[in-house]
C-alpha cells in the first residue's frame, strides 16, 4: 500500500511542543481532542499511544531546547497521519535498518505546501511495503521479545498501518499512519 499523499489531506493540524517531558501528555491531549472533534474513525487509543511514544523519543533522544513539532492529518480515505519533527537528523535506531523511510510528508507534513510532488520533495511517493525505502514488516520481532529500550518503536511497527522516518531540512520526521474504521 503506497504512503498517502499529504497534499490530499482534507484537514491537517500543526503544533509546536516544548522540548520537555510535559510535551508527552500535551501531545496525547492534542491527539485525543483533535480526533474527538473530527469524529475520525480511527483507533484513538493507538493514535494517542503512538504519538506519545514518538514525542517521548524526541524529547529523550534529541538535544537542545528547540520545540518539537507535532503534525497530524486526516486523508480523504479517513486514514490518520501523524509526524513528530525534531532537530536531530539521525534516524531512530530501531527504524534505521528496517528500510522504513519515506513518509506521508515530504517537506513539512500532512497538508502542507511542499509535500510530496512539490519541488525539493524529499519523501518517497511510492514507499509502500516492498517498495525501495518503504515500510518493512517481515521479520519484525514479537513485541514480548523486545528489550525495555526500543519498545515504543516496536509498538509503532505493530499498531500502525505504516511507519517510518524521513529527513527534513531541519532534522527528521518520524511518522505513522492508522487506518480508518478501527475505533
Report what the structure shows:
Strands 1-2-3-5-4 form a five-stranded antiparallel beta sheet. The protein has helices spanning 23-38, 44-61, 93-96, 151-159, and strands at 11-17, 68-74, 80-86, 162-168, 171-178. The protein starts with 10 loop residues before the first strand and ends in a 5-residue tail after the last strand. α1 (23-38) runs antiparallel to α2 (44-61) and α2 (44-61) packs antiparallel against α4. The radius of gyration is 15 Å and the shape is globular. The chain has four helices and five strands, in the order βααββααββ. By secondary structure, it is an alpha+beta fold. A hairpin with a 2-residue loop joins β4 and β5 (171-178). It is 26% helix and 20% strand.
Short account of what is shown:
With 183 residues, this protein is α+β, with helices and mostly antiparallel strands. Helix content is 26%, strand content 20%.
Question: Helices and strands in order, then pairings?
Answer:
Blueprint: E1 11-17, H1 23-38, H2 44-61, E2 68-74, E3 80-86, H3 93-96, H4 151-159, E4 162-168, E5 171-178
Antiparallel strand pairs: 1-2, 2-3, 3-5, 4-5
Low-confidence stretches: 1-7, 105-148
Structural class: alpha+beta
Binned strand content: 15-25%
Radius of gyration: 15 Å
The major β-sheet equals: 5 strands, antiparallel
Biggest sheet strand order reads: 1-2-3-5-4
Oligomer: single chain
**Separation, N- and C-terminal Cα atoms:** 21 Å
Global shape: globular
Order of helices and strands: EHHEEHHEE
Key descriptive features of the protein:
alpha+beta, 5-stranded antiparallel β-sheet, disordered N terminus, 4 helices, single chain, 20% strand, globular, 183 residues, 5 strands
Amino acid at each position: 500500500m503506497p504512503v498517502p499523499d499529504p497534499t490530499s489531506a482534507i484537514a491537517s493540524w500543526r503544533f509546536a511542543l516544548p522540548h520537555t517531558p510535559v510535551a508527552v501528555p500535551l501531545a496525547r491531549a492534542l491527539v485525543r481532542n483533535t480526533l474527538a472533534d473530527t469524529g475520525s474513525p480511527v483507533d484513538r487509543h493507538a493514535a494517542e499511544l503512538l504519538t506519545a511514544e514518538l514525542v517521548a523519543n524526541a524529547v529523550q533522544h534529541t538535544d537542545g531546547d528547540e520545540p518539537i513539532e507535532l503534525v497530524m492529518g486526516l486523508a480523504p480515505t479517513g486514514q490518520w497521519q501523524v509526524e513528530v519533527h525534531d532537530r536531530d537528523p539521525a534516524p531512530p535506531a530501531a527504524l534505521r535498518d528496517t528500510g522504513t523511510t519515506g513518509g506521508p510528508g515530504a517537506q513539512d507534513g500532512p497538508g502542507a505546501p511542499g509535500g510530496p510532488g512539490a519541488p525539493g520533495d524529499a519523501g518517497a511517493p511510492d514507499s509502500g511495503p516492498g517498495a525501495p525505502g518503504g515500510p518493512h514488516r517481515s521479520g519484525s520481532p514479537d513485541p514480548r521479545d523486545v528489550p525495555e529500550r526500543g519498545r515504543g518503536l516496536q509498538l509503532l511497527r505493530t499498531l500502525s498501518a505504516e511507519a517510518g522516518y524521513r529527513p527534513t531540512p531541519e532534522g527528521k520526521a518520524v511518522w505513522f499512519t492508522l487506518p480508518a474504521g478501527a475505533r
